[in-house]
């Protein structure tokens, strides 16, 4: 018998693409870290460490290699002895505890030396097309010293301290796609292992984590000699890699509209497929409940000192408590149980709980969801050409329908345009400033689609509806960016964030959390409204453990054993 | 020095914006530079001179956009243009987005483009000339005889050209003020926890 899957409508962009909701998202089966590990395990990638030449001070070079069905990739790690006063979370710095490059294949000695001349310099160095990513990391001093000290004395580190910080090193950037001379993504996009987004970057971080754990044990051995021990394997997995992410990442969601559509549309399609299942099996229900319980545990482990995040974690904890209570007598036997559960959440839970539930609903359905990850990449160039023959009337109609929310904004109110995105001369990085106080108009980046599209609409209103958009652009080339965007959004409806990105109350960390949840990061820890720290690969098996049996549930903490 | 095409696109876009172009046209120029590099043309000879004549560049980009946007009658379009390089790149964009083949000729060069690739012959020094008569015609896709060729994935840019591009790009960066320092974007300078 063929079971028909009814069409359950996807949540529309007007519901999904709101910053407050995007800033409440959680990792899921479609997150890029999980996609990577599923592939490495599923295809039986092998792992080795061709070089670990690190001295007693922790200075030296190491190579970490993953070999798949067709190709190998090597993380080249340079470890440094960084004076404490030079350690910084800033993306722009000049020295780090460790610097890294992900190399296509296995580098020769000459290639390693060339990398040594450039990789530690980061922005000041140049790399070749054989390098896919460039990265650097600094130690978490409070945890690093505790772990080295404990292990060197033959003791395991304090698990509570491990949980509190969660990582031994924190990256301040993982650059890919052509930065500093590295290969453009186009160069390797057709390789199956890089079919899903950000796989080279995730592979880099995954191997950095492996290196960092080896390095801390090496330093403990150097210090403690025969007294030193290695980390307990279960505790070892609780170390992820930290990351500090600031405003630089926020514009990405605006400058890659087709990619962003593909991420969100795929996630919504996966959700609709699950909601469209008429029945639930015992195994599916059990898997879902198990993940929900572990998500509660994860929320309990989630620490932050920022008032905004404390409030959000409290909301999540309360929502998960409500979910647990509801599940106790939820009628999974009635038809479309997952859809009913989601409908209940939409009226009973906050955004944190609703978005957590979206992730949880995908968990039991790997066979439905996992294959969709290959549809999440995009070639932005495919949306570049403007359809000049489209009529002005058609463009106006689309703006009226799709940007009704933007028409409702009072653009003459000072708060509506209080902010401006710009690039700072001092740091060469994207920044968000107060438009008037900082005189930013001349430097404004095109990162406020709502305002710009409304401006275009005002000029479009002066034209005959039957005229072509090409005629309009000849008179108004200043609207070319906005018209291109409108046409992209027409074809890719989840491409647009349905909020004013320059409003006085806009929270930049909402952009960051949306993107980082697609990466698969957890434990978002805002340090202000515009930068945060996260943890990556916490709980993941190490490369040498993948062959022993991989379970794709590592991103939820294990329930404590009795 | 060798640059990735993403770097080239970004450098040209920022320099174009710094020279006074609106964002949409600056983005077009960055995209065109990527196409030119893929065809093996030099940024230094094809784009840097254009950026030194921003007013002419502005008008020429608006003209070439009509081809890129598919707004021209291509049964045999003839006109006099500035900077044929822009028309070459616009033709490449049109061919890809409309799955079409075009033949573009001047007295000095001939360009055949198809969705799969492009072949250029003749004196490429004339690509940045002004007041050049040009003829553009749509040709039968099956007769275009374009064999897809490996596209260049890197571009060499000299220090002098780079300096000029960076000088223009610098105009798009806001000088630091007391207010911007205070609003900040990242962690404290020293952060050892």
Nutshell version of this structure?
Chain A has 562 residues and is α+β, with helices and mostly antiparallel strands. In chain A, 41% of the residues lie in helices and 14% in strands.
Give the helices and strands, then pairings:
The complex is a heterodimer of chains A (562) and B (193).
Chain A lengths: L12 H4 L2 H4 L9 H11 L3 E9 L5 E8 L4 E8 L18 E7 L4 H10 L12 E9 L1 H12 L6 H7 L1 E9 L9 H4 L10 H26 L8 H4 L3 E6 L6 H4 L1 H19 L6 H20 L5 H22 L8 H12 L2 H12 L3 H4 L22 H11 L1 H4 L11 E6 L5 E5 L14 H12 L8 H7 L4 H12 L16 H12 L2 E5 L5 E5 L26
Parallel strand pairs in A: 6-7
Antiparallel strand pairs in A: 1-2, 2-3, 3-4, 4-5, 5-6, 7-11, 8-9, 10-11
Chain B lengths: L1 E3 H14 L4 H16 L4 H4 L1 H4 L2 H15 L8 E5 L2 H15 L2 E5 L3 E5 L4 E5 L9 E8 L14 E3 L2 H12 L2 E2 L3 H6 L10
Antiparallel strand pairs in B: 1-7, 2-6, 3-4, 3-6, 4-5
Helix pairs in contact in B: 1-2, 1-7, 2-6, 5-6
Task: Figure out the total of helices of chain A.
Answer: 22
Proportion of helical residues of chain B? 40-55%
**What is the 3D form of chain A?**
globular
Mean pLDDT across all amino acids of chain B: 90
Label the structural class of chain A. alpha+beta
Q: Which descriptor suits the 3D outline of chain B?
A: globular
Straight-line distance between termini of chain A: 43 Å
Oligomerization: heterodimer
Please report which band the strand proportion of chain A falls in: under 5%, 5-15%, 15-25%, 25-35%, 35-45% or over 45%: 5-15%
Unreliable stretches of chain A (pLDDT < 50, length at least 5) are 1-6
Ends apart, CA distance between termini of chain B: 39 Å
The order of strands across the largest sheet of chain A is 1-2-3-4-5-6-7-11-10
Rg of Cα set of chain A: 25 Å
State the strand order across the main sheet of chain B: 2-6-3-4-5
Q: Secondary-structure element order of chain B, as H and E?
A: EHHHHHEHEEEEEHEH
User: Would you identify the regions of chain B where 5 or more consecutive residues have pLDDT less than 50?
Assistant: 186-192
How many helices of chain B? 8
